[in-house]
Amino acid sequence: MISMKIFVTGMPGVGKTTLVLKITEDLKKRGFKVGGMITQEVRERGKRVGFKIKALDTNEEGTLAWVGEGYPRIGKYVVNIEDLNRVGVSAIKRAVQNADVIIIDEIGAMEFKSREFAKAVEEALKSEKPLLATLHRRWVDKFKDKGKLCVLTVGNREKMREEILHELLKILKS
To answer: How far apart are CA 104 and CA 153, in angstroms?
Structure first.
């Protein structure tokens, strides 16, 4: 199997996580095992107050970051390394072992506060399995040589989803 690594980037709120979730559902419907983690915003009264992480195989959830005091921090957010390792890193490691496709949403500064996360990303990159990952826009330069880079916009979301799904299916069926 040819190893394929696809990285999706774009501005905040453009739909990177939604794209990954839709592709995950499409692959699962076709009988493929998808693993890894996604990051979702937590909002209160319309304001973003943090992020949660979710394992795609077990649906286990944890808190990635929240607005508040503490350390380590990225901007106004305190990063919860314990939950990131327990939920996110474990899910990536299981995906490298057992899944047909590895999902990592998102690769960015918050996540790289964890040495374990950095190691898990490295394992996913070395793996023979297809990887679909979202990249924080400031991390594009670090990863653009490691696979195919797709820049998501409101205008190309649907087309991008179809293209990425098509490419993954081509590889999974080969």
So the answer is: 19
